[in-house]
Amino acid sequence: MKKLCEMLQKFNGIIAIVVFAALAIFALAMATPAANLRGYADTEDFYKAIQPWNDGILYFAIAGIVLACLYSVLRNNVRKIFYISNFVWTILYCLVGLGGGIYAIVGISLYQKSYLALPLESINQYWADHYLDTSVSRSTPVFALGYLAAALVFISVILCAFVGIMKFIDQRKTKPQADSIANKEEAHV
Prior knowledge:
Largest sheet: none
Shape: elongated
Helix content: over 70%
Order of helices and strands: HHHHH
Structural class: mainly alpha
Distance between the termini: 39 Å
Mean pLDDT: 83
Number of strands: 0
Strand content: under 5%
């Protein structure tokens, strides 16, 4: 367990950047399958309902990337003993990761439900009637990719929490020994 903790401690910052970058890329590409719907007048409300969720996912991703960049600044990747700032970073990262992942899953599920409720057959027929070479398909991988990005964020939270908990436990084990050594030294003075 200790070796796993040491390895994860070195790479948690990189893992965090990668997973939140994947979430940001997803947020930027989230509306791609519905892009053709912008030319169809009856889907204006569809975009208005989804856009705030899309923006929120992107904001969480940016916050996660900024927080992940602070990992090395606080020297979380090399500290043998975590200071309060390292534990605060760990807690903050877990909160942002959990919040972002949950927000993404809720937003993606609402988007998926709204997208699948659209009358895609009549929309495709409208475009065909107007000689437009455009269509919208019910089968799109964007929802699965979004759920995958959110799952990766949750996994990174678990890995980060694991390191934080292991460091806390390790420091609690060594603290009584350090206190007893200090007490013995004071007794000899």
